[in-house]
Amino acid sequence: MAAGLKNLIRLHEWTVDERRRELGLHIRKLNELDQRVRDLEAELKREQALAGSGDLGITFGAYYNLYRYRRARLDERIRIQEREILEARDILGRAYMELKKYQVADEIRRREAAQEEARQEQADLDELGLQLYRRQSARRNAARRRAG
Asked: Which one of 3, 8, 90, 131 has the fewest beta carbons within 10 angstroms of its own beta carbon?
């Protein structure tokens, strides 16, 4: 049974690691989307500066419509990614709880095995002590009979 429990623990450790990697991937994607929003904002500021400095102001309206469309798409992707992160965290939490269940069971099994080993060792020592006492008692009784 101990080998089966160890295999289950290894399997669940692997599962937890996979879930962590998946969560990390989702977080990286969210960070990339955040960077794209920052880049888009910087691009908007550059376009505004260009529009204010000359005759390019006429095209700014078309650019701004494109900007709003792109920003709305990024915002939606960010919302989706945030939901996926929450879901990935939930899945990771459940996987971790499952792993802990097996780790606790293994710890209890090891503790019980150690206690049983200690009980057995104490029983062996008690038996050895009893045998030693009997031998010493038998020698004393034999010595008294010879002396008496």
From this structure: 3
